[in-house]
Specification:
The structure holds 2 protein chains of 2 kinds. Chain A is α/β, with parallel strands linked by helices. Chain A has helices spanning 26-41, 72-78, 94-107, 152-167, 171-186, 200-204, 233-236, 264-282, 301-308, 317-320, 339-343, 349-360; strands at 8-15, 50-53, 86-89, 113-120, 208-211, 213-214, 224-232, 244-254, 291-293, 373-378, 383-391. In chain A, helix 8 (264-282) packs across helix 9 (301-308). By secondary structure, chain B is mainly beta. Chain B has one domain. Chain B is built from 1 helix and 8 strands, in the order H-E-E-E-E-E-E-E-E. In chain B, a hairpin with a 5-residue loop joins strand 7 (129-136) and strand 8. Chain B starts with 27 loop residues before the first helix and ends in a 6-residue tail after the last strand. Classes of the chains: A alpha/beta, B mainly beta. Strand 5 of chain A pairs antiparallel with strand 4 (74-83) of chain B.
Chain lengths: 394, 154
């Protein structure tokens, strides 16, 4: 079990405006989210002495801090933080991996109040995204690109095709998940699909991009930023909101299979290792969890995470999500915020921010009753990920 | 290297403009074998395990000793996708087309990426038996491809 179990807590959360294309720069949105998280905690920006993010800009030809992405340098300079003494940029595992670093930094006294955010910019000309323009078929790509396997969504479609073929999952099964998820999102005024629930036929009739993934299996790119404020448990108890104690963490999630593409087995193995670490680190298990907030950049990731964490068996998640089991009032509420599929491509912040607020009892119509323990996870099954357990009591 | 024989050359897809492989020192033997109608895969000389893509050491026993050896050209579709939208440059006219990950008969988990050729992409299934074909590329290069097995198996 972790020696720093419940010694660090999340004390504040914030979201910027989320829009398909925002008028404000991504830098301004990141400032909004960060200041929001600081104010929510009842702190002043002068208290912030740590910064951590996952700054990677996924698509686009250039990368200017504050314009195309929002990194620690931009935030540190824009908010002029003279007391800043720790900062960190992670290169995988998105917002939860940055959070794990901040938890460790706070626990060791490297800093006292750390801001952690993930800023996502949706450029109007995504450039490279569509077909990897001008990228030569060199290195490992010489075994893939001559076949026209050269689009992000194609890569992520492969493991799902095998999942469906191996276990018998269908688009009908996924329709249930998507309808529930968009219902959750329709209750969330901070997300892109607020007030926009859909029915099964909307999903089943959704345009196919690359089998078996349709448009509604993919999160929609947006401009938006989510942020949280991390501090010691002791300090958090004196602040405005109830603390969300960090009871365990895991970060990793790399596929070590030697293969030319991502594979279902590689995904399952990498996700299982993250899950095993999380349970060992927290001393808890799936039966202790009241709400599961798992990464959903592509819809079927949710299946793989539910299975990896042991909420159901391998190849069973597509049945587990039926019959209202994952609804807000169900046996295991999943992604009550609507996740990325319901809020927009915000890389784990829909999971993290909502997870904290479920602990704090601040989710309004989406609030789950009697929440004691929340699982929060961000990142794809094998492309770098991280997870944590949040608890209401230390 | 054992000579495997020349596979049937086939016309496939609606003329995609395929990016040519940028052949390097490590992959030259693969493309040289393909020119002769062979699918050659790197095989560890110590533990005899195959690996694809090629890499400097064997991921199973870490030996550097390896040889390119021809495979039978039979396999099973383990993963696939069918692109429906013209999102890949050079392949706009080819949609819909199927990309398959073929598990080669030689070894469990030995995967090779190709298109599914000589078949309606809508017929692709996990577990489908496939066999090797070759598609001519510019400059005498030939691209290993896979088509459904017609005679029902091995």
């Amino acid at each position: 079990m972790s020696p720093i179990r419940n010694r660090v807590a999340i004390a504040g959360t914030g979201f910027s405006r989320v829009a398909r294309h925002a008028e404000e720069s991504i830098g301004k949105l990141a400032i909004d989210a960060c200041l929001g998280a600081v104010a929510d905690a009842g702190l002043s920006i002068d208290d912030v002495d740590g910064l951590a993010t996952y700054p990677l800009m996924l698509f686009g030809p250039s990368s200017i801090d504050g314009v195309h992405f929002a990194g620690v340098k931009f935030i540190g300079q824009s908010l002029r933080l003279p007391q800043l003494r720790w900062s960190c940029s992670v290169t995988q595992g998105t917002v939860c991996a940055a959070l794990v670093e901040a938890v460790n930094a706070v626990a060791t006294g490297t800093c006292n109040h750390a801001l952690v955010w993930r800023a996502m910019h949706n450029p109007r000309d995504p450039g490279r995204e569509y077909g990897y323009r001008d990228v030569p078929a060199s290195g490992m790509d010489q075994f893939i690109r001559p076949y026209g396997q050269a689009h992000t969504v194609m890569n992520f479609a492969l493991p799902y095709s095998r999942y469906m073929g191996k276990y018998g999952a269908t688009r009908e099964h996924m329709a249930t998940f998507i309808v529930n998820n968009r219902h959750n999102a329709s209750l969330n005024p901070e997300g892109a699909f607020f007030g926009r629930a859909i029915g099964r036929d909307d999903y089943l009739g959704s345009e196919m991009v690359t089998d078996p993934l349709c448009m509604l299996d993919c999160d929609m790119p947006v401009d938006g930023v989510g942020a949280v404020l991390v501090t010691t448990a002791e300090r958090a108890r004196d602040l405005r909101n109830p603390p969300a104690y960090v009871s365990g963490v895991a970060a990793g999630g790399l596929d070590y299979m030697h293969a030319p593409t991502m594979t279902l087995e590689g995904y399952q193995d990498a996700a299982a290792r993250t899950a095993r670490t999380l349970w060992e680190n927290s001393g808890l298990g799936p039966r202790d969890v009241d709400v599961a907030m798992v990464y959903d950049g592509f819809s079927y990731f949710v299946y793989l995470w539910l299975e990896a964490f042991g909420f159901c068996g391998e190849g069973e998640a597509f049945e587990f999500v039926q019959d209202g089991r994952i609804a807000i009032d169900g046996e295991l509420p999943v992604n009550t915020s609507g996740g990325a599929l319901g809020m927009g491509r915000l890389h784990g912040t829909p999971q993290l921010v909502e997870g904290v607020r479920q602990i704090q009892g601040r989710c309004g119509p989406r609030q789950v009753r009697d929440v004691e323990t929340v699982l929060v996870q961000a990142g794809g099954p094998a492309t770098g990920n991280a997870a944590l357990i949040l608890s209401k009591t230390a | 290297m054992r000579r495997f024989g020349v596979a049937r050359v086939t016309e496939v897809l609606s003329r995609p403009q395929r990016p040519l492989p940028v052949i390097d020192e490590a992959t030259a033997p693969f493309w040289a074998a393909a020119r002769q109608g062979m699918l050659a895969i790197l095989r560890c000389e110590r533990c005899r395990r195959w690996r694809n893509p090629p890499s400097p050491v064997c991921p199973d026993c870490w030996s550097e000793e390896a040889e390119w050896e021809p495979v039978s050209g039979l396999g099973t579709v383990s993963h696939f996708t069918v692109l429906r939208q013209p999102r890949v440059r050079g392949f706009e006219a080819a949609v819909p087309y199927a990309v398959v990950v073929v598990e080669l008969d030689e070894q469990a988990g030995l995967l090779f990426v190709s298109n599914l050729v000589e078949a309606d992409p809508d017929t692709v299934r996990i577990g489908m038996r496939v066999q090797l074909r070759f598609e001519p590329l510019e400059g005498g290069l030939r691209l290993p491809q896979f088509a459904p097995v017609r005679n029902g198996g091995r």
